[in-house]
Amino acid sequence: MNDSFDDLQQSYGRCLARRGFIERFYEIFMARHPDIEAMFARTDFQKQRLALRRGISVAILHAGGSAMVERTCAGMAGVHAREGRAPVPPELYPHWIESLLQAVAEFDEDADTRLLARWRQAMSRMVDFFVQRY
């Protein structure tokens, strides 16, 4: 039986329904490690926020085993690979996951320990995919 992570899609919808979720994620993320903020020095945040919105949706679908997003995931992993245009060292991904979990906990009124563990499980699948392609 496949797990489609529908509960995460619903949680993500609740997060996005409250203004400022993506912006709050970036505040948390950039404060977590001194190398992270510098990685975004030349970033167009309007585009970046849209990319993250889409990326989280793709990550949830990927975690659920959707073949629809395979090409998109490979493209995203390529961007963040060692030779990509925005490389992300694997040791920074735990900060990304923890930042996302904190933002979800702040923005989803239904977030509890179980749901946050599900978020961690799903996002870890995407992070593992990225790290393997680094």
TrEMBL record:
UniProt-recorded Gene Ontology molecular function terms: heme binding; oxygen binding
Alphabetical list of CDD domains matching this protein: Mb-like (cd01040)
Name the record gives this protein: Globin
